[in-house]
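We examine the record.

___
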Amino acid sequence: MYFEDLEVWKAARALANKIYGITKDGAFSKDYSLRDQIRRASVSIMSNIAEGYERGGNQELIQFLSIAKGSCGEVRCQLYIAGDQNYIDQNELKPLIEQCKRISIMINNFMEHLKGSRYKGPKYKMPKQKSVKETLDDIMKKINTKNDKTA
C-alpha cells in the first residue's frame, strides 16, 4: 500500500485543489499573503500525511499526522478570514469548512488507530546484519558441533 491509497490523503489532495481553485482569481488572488499562506497550509496537510507514511514507524507517522491536522486547522482558520473579507461567498465557504473538519476527524481517527496498533516499529524492517565476529562464532559452533558428533 502507498500513501496515494489512503483515503485521508485523497481527501487532503481534493481540498488542496479546491484551495488552489478559489485563490487563483478575484480579490483572493490579489491578497498575496493570505493566498500563499492558505495554499502552503493546504499542501502541508497532504505532504505531511505522505511524508509520515513513507518514513516507516507508527510513532513518526503519528507525529506527521499531528502536523497535518494542525495544518488543516490553519486552513480552516484562514478560510474564515477569507469569508470575513468577502473573498469567498458564504455558500462556498461552508462546504470547505466542513471538508476541513472531516479531514481533521479522519486524521484523528487514523492517529487513534495507530496508537492502539500493536505494530510500533518501522514498516520496512531490514534484517539485522551479523558482524564478522558473529559470523565466525557461528561457523566455529558448527565446526565444534560436527567434531563433537564424530568424536
User: Anything to note?
Assistant: The mean pLDDT is 89. Helices lie at 7-23, 26-30, 32-55, 58-84, 90-116, 132-150. The domain at 3-123 is CATH 1.20.1440.60 (de novo design (two linked rop proteins)). The chain has one domain: 3-123.
